[in-house]
Write a structure and sequence with these properties.
The complex is a heterodimer of chains A (about 290) and B (about 325).
Chain A (H helix, E strand, L loop, with lengths): L1 H15 L5 H7 L4 H18 L1 H4 L32 H37 L1 H15 L3 H12 L3 H27 L3 H8 L4 H37 L11 H9 L7 H27 L1
Helix pairs in contact in A: 3-5, 3-12, 5-6, 5-8, 5-10, 5-12, 7-8, 8-10, 9-10, 10-11, 10-12, 11-12
Chain B lengths: L2 H29 L4 H6 L5 H11 L5 H13 L13 H36 L4 H15 L2 H15 L12 H7 L1 H26 L3 H8 L4 H38 L5 H10 L3 H29 L7
Helix pairs in contact in B: 1-4, 1-13, 5-6, 5-9, 5-11, 6-9, 7-9, 7-11, 9-11, 10-11, 11-12, 11-13, 12-13
Classes of the chains: A mainly alpha (about 290), B mainly alpha (about 325).
C-alpha cells in the first residue's frame, strides 16, 4: 500500500520534470547515438551467429552439386548457393561465429600483454623503457600486414597461427597507448600519495595506475578488432587462414573470385557480411571515443 | 640544428632501426617453432634429408655466422637464392619492385586528390548534407576489406560497364596508367578515408584561428584564405597520419596486386609464403620496412616545407 503511494509520487515527480531529449536520455545511461547503433548492430550479428542452427535448415559444409549456382531469392535459398550447391546464407551465418572469434581472440591477448608491458615500462622507466622504445621503433618500421604474413610463412597457415602472428605484432599498439597514459599519470598526487604510504610497486601499478590508464586502450580494442577481422579475412582470402571447407568470409570471397561472371553473389554477399560487422565495431569504437 | 644536421642524425638512427629490422627477420626464421627444412621436404622428410638440407641452407652453422651472412649479403645486394625457383632473390625482386612502387605512388596521388577535394569540401560544408554524404561514404569504404572493394570495382567497372581492364599491367606507360587505375583507386579510397576525417577536423579547427579572421577581414578571396592560410596549416597533422598509415598502404598494395594479377612484389610474396620460400619472404619484408622508414623520414622533413616555423632539434 505504502509502496504504491511512493510509486505514484515518484511517477508524478517524473512527469513534472521537463522531458529530456532523446540524446540526453541516452547520455544519462552512458550511451550516445553512435554507440547505441553499434551495440545494436553487433548484438544482431552475435545473435545470428549463436542461433545459426535455428536460422537455417542447411548444413554449411555438405555439398549438393545439383543445386549449384542458384542466384539469390531462389526457392529455398534466400541468398542463393555456391559452386558446390551449399546454401550461402548458412555459410555466411556460420562464418559469423568464426569471424567474431577471430576478432575477440586476436585482440584479447595483445591487449592484456601490451597493456601490462606499457604500464610496466612507463611506470618503471629507466633502461627497460629505453629498450622498449627501441623495440617499438623497430616493430613500427614494418608494414603491419607484411610482418604478420612473414611470421605466418614460418608458422604455417591456419587459425591458431593467425592468432599468434597477429598477437606478436599488435601488442605493441596497446603497449604504446598504455605507456603514454602511464607517463602522464605516474607523478600525479594520488600516485605519489600511494608511494608515500609505502605501497609496493606492483600494488601501485595494479590498483592506482591501471584503472586510470586502461580507458584509451579499451576504446582502441574495438578499432583494432575491425582491423583484426579484416586482416583475418585478408589472410584467409590469401589462403593462409582457416582451411576449406570451413566457412569464413574472406575464404568465401576468394572462392567466389573465379566465378565472378557466373555467380557474383558468391563474392559480393560474404563481403557485405564482413562490412556489417566492421561497421558495428567501428560505430562502437567511435561512440566510446566520443564519450571520452 | 639545421636540416642537414637533422637528416644526418635521422640517418644514423635509421641504421639502428634497420639493424633491429634484420634481427627481427632473422630471429623469425630461427626462433619461431617450425623447421624450414622439415616444411620444405614435407613428406620426404627423413633424418638424413633434413640434415642434408640444413647443410645446404647453412642452418647448422653458428647463429652469429648465419646472421652475418644474411646481413652482409643484404648490404651487398645478395639476398640469397629462392628455394622454390632456384634463382637469385635479387633478380626476382628487382624486376618487381618498380611495379609495386609505381602502384603505391599512383595510389598516393589519388589519395592526395581525394583527401584534398573531399576533406576541404566536407569542412567548408560542415554539417550539411554534402558533409554527411562524404562522412558516410568514406566510413563504409574504411570498413570494407580492400580486396573485396577491388573485386566489387572489377565487377562494376570492368565486367559490368567495361570501362577498365579486369586485370594485368599493360606494356607502355599509358597502358600502365590505364591498367593500374582500378587497383590504385581501391587503395587510394581507403587511405583517403582515414585522412579525410583528419583533414576535415583540422581545417575546421584552423578556420577559427585569428589569422584566418584577419585574412578574411583584409578582404582576401575565400579561395585564397582556404588554400594558403587554412590548408597549409591544417595539412601538418594530416601528413603525420599519412606517415603512420604508409605501412598499411604497402600491405594493401601487396594484397591488391594479387586481386588484379599485377606482377609486383605482392604476388611473389604470397606465392613464396605458400611454398615457404623464406629467403624471398625475408627480402621482401626488409625492402618494405626500408620503404616505410624512408617515407617517414620524408614526412618528418616535409614539416618544415609546410610550416617554416618548424625547426628540427
Amino acid at each position: 500500500m505504502s509502496e504504491n503511494v511512493l510509486n505514484s509520487a515518484v511517477l508524478t515527480n517524473v512527469a513534472a520534470v521537463p522531458r529530456l531529449s532523446y540524446s540526453m536520455r541516452l547520455q544519462k545511461v552512458g550511451l550516445n547515438g553512435t554507440l547505441l547503433a553499434g551495440l545494436i548492430l553487433l548484438g544482431v550479428v552475435i545473435l545470428v551467429a549463436l542461433a545459426a542452427p535455428l536460422l537455417t535448415p542447411y548444413d554449411p559444409i555438405v555439398q549438393k552439386l545439383d543445386e549449384a549456382f542458384k542466384p539469390p531469392f531462389s526457392a529455398g535459398h534466400l541468398l542463393g548457393t555456391d559452386n558446390f550447391g551449399r546454401d550461402l546464407w548458412s555459410r555466411i551465418i556460420y562464418s559469423a561465429r568464426l569471424d567474431l572469434q577471430i576478432g575477440v581472440i586476436s585482440v584479447l591477448f595483445p591487449f592484456l600483454f601490451g597493456s601490462f608491458a606499457g604500464i610496466s615500462t612507463g611506470y618503471l622507466g629507466g633502461r627497460l623503457d629505453t629498450l622498449f622504445m627501441r623495440v617499438v621503433d623497430v616493430l613500427m618500421a614494418f608494414p603491419f600486414l607484411v610482418l604478420v604474413v612473414a611470421i605466418m610463412s614460418v608458422l604455417g597457415a591456419g587459425l591458431v597461427n593467425l592468432y599468434i602472428a597477429f598477437g606478436l605484432v599488435s601488442w605493441i599498439w596497446y603497449a604504446r597507448i598504455a605507456r603514454a597514459e602511464t607517463l602522464a599519470t605516474r607523478n600525479l598526487e594520488y600516485v605519489q600519495a600511494a608511494r608515500t604510504i609505502g605501497c609496493s610497486t606492483w600494488r601501485i601499478m595494479a590498483r592506482h595506475i591501471l584503472p586510470n590508464v586502461i580507458g584509451p586502450g579499451l576504446v582502441y580494442v574495438f578499432t583494432s578488432m575491425v582491423l583484426a577481422i579484416l586482416t583475418g579475412a585478408t589472410l584467409s582470402y590469401l589462403g593462409l587462414g582457416p582451411q576449406p571447407p570451413t566457412p569464413e568470409w574472406g575464404a568465401m570471397i576468394a572462392a567466389g573470385r573465379q566465378f565472378l561472371l557466373q555467380a557474383w553473389w558468391m563474392t559480393a554477399l560474404p563481403g557485405f557480411a564482413l562490412l556489417v560487422l566492421g561497421i558495428a565495431l567501428s560505430l562502437i569504437g567511435d561512440g566510446l571515443a566520443e564519450k571520452r | 640544428m639545421g636540416r642537414g644536421g637533422y637528416v644526418r642524425k635521422r640517418l644514423v638512427l635509421m641504421v639502428f632501426v634497420l639493424f633491429g629490422v634484420t634481427i627481427v627477420i632473422f630471429g623469425m626464421v630461427h626462433f619461431l617453432p617450425g623447421d624450414p627444412a622439415v616444411v620444405l621436404l614435407g613428406d620426404r622428410a627423413t633424418q638424413q634429408n633434413i640434415a642434408e638440407l640444413h647443410d645446404q641452407l647453412g642452418l647448422n652453422k653458428p647463429l652469429y655466422e648465419q646472421y652475418w651472412q644474411f646481413v652482409s649479403g643484404f648490404v651487398q645486394g645478395q639476398m640469397g637464392t629462392s628455394l622454390q625457383f632456384k634463382q637469385p632473390v635479387r633478380d626476382m625482386v628487382v624486376s618487381r619492385l618498380p611495379i609495386t612502387i609505381g602502384l603505391a605512388v599512383y595510389a598516393m596521388a589519388l589519395t592526395g586528390l581525394f583527401t584534398l577535394t573531399f576533406g576541404l569540401l566536407a569542412a567548408v560544408k560542415k554539417g550539411g548534407w554534402v558533409d554527411q554524404l562524404i562522412r558516410v561514404t568514406f566510413l563504409l569504404v574504411l570498413t570494407t576489406p580492400n580486396f573485396w572493394l577491388g573485386i566489387l570495382l572489377i565487377l562494376l567497372l570492368s565486367l559490368g560497364l567495361k570501362w577498365f581492364p579486369v586485370a594485368g599491367f599493360g606494356n607502355t606507360f599509358q597502358e600502365h596508367v590505364w591498367y593500374l587505375f582500378l587497383p590504385s583507386l581501391t587503395l587510394g579510397l581507403q587511405l583517403a578515408a582515414v585522412l579525410i576525417r583528419n583533414l576535415r577536423s583540422q581545417v575546421i579547427l584552423t578556420m577559427r584561428s585569428d589569422y584566418v579572421r584577419t585574412a578574411r577581414a583584409k578582404g582576401l578571396l575565400e579561395r585564397i584564405v582556404l588554400l594558403q592560410h587554412v590548408l597549409r596549416n591544417a595539412l601538418l597533422s594530416t601528413v603525420t597520419i599519412f606517415g603512420l598509415q604508409f605501412g598499411f598502404l604497402v600491405g594493401g598494395t601487396l594484397v591488391i596486386e594479387t586481386v588484379f594479377a599485377i606482377p609486383g612484389m605482392g604476388q611473389l610474396l604470397f606465392q613464396s609464403i605458400t611454398s615457404r620460400d623464406y629467403p624471398v619472404v625475408q627480402a621482401i619484408t626488409v625492402i618494405t620496412a626500408i620503404m616505410v622508414i624512408l617515407v617517414n623520414l620524408a614526412v618528418d622533413l616535409s614539416y618544415s616545407l609546410l610550416d617554416p616555423r618548424v625547426t628540427y632539434e
